[in-house]
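Risk register update: the risk of archive-format incompatibility is retired. Evidence:
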Amino acid sequence: MRADLATMLLLAPWIGLALWAVYVGLFASVVITDATGITVQNFLRRTRIPWGRVADIDLRYQLVISTTEPRRVTCYGGPASGRRSARERDSARTPAALRDADRIREDWEAATQTPADSGATVQRGWDLPAIAAALVLVAGAGVALAVV
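Archived output:
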């Protein structure tokens, strides 16, 4: 029984690293809007763009936000145009990606009608909690290798 527990503790960091990679690859990328701007997280990189710094919002294959810097931010976790299914082609309904992109554009247009903070800058950073979790898991994997 004791050997089984030790084996589980040696395997746990590796399973945790695999789950962390799935989280970062599939779930961490996201686009969030609020009254002051838009936050784009692509994998472990986070960008906060105030509405006053947005020059254009376009939906190509992914949502692309052009800033006044001039730089572009491609949103991997936002709406994506893709192939329409046969059911969507036959119906007159707007695809979900276009509805989401339109909703983001509407938020931007509503925010630009009110006075914006011209001193606000685009902020870029890392997802520190996810990176800290990865470091802990790598340290645990290192301990597991040292023990074996």
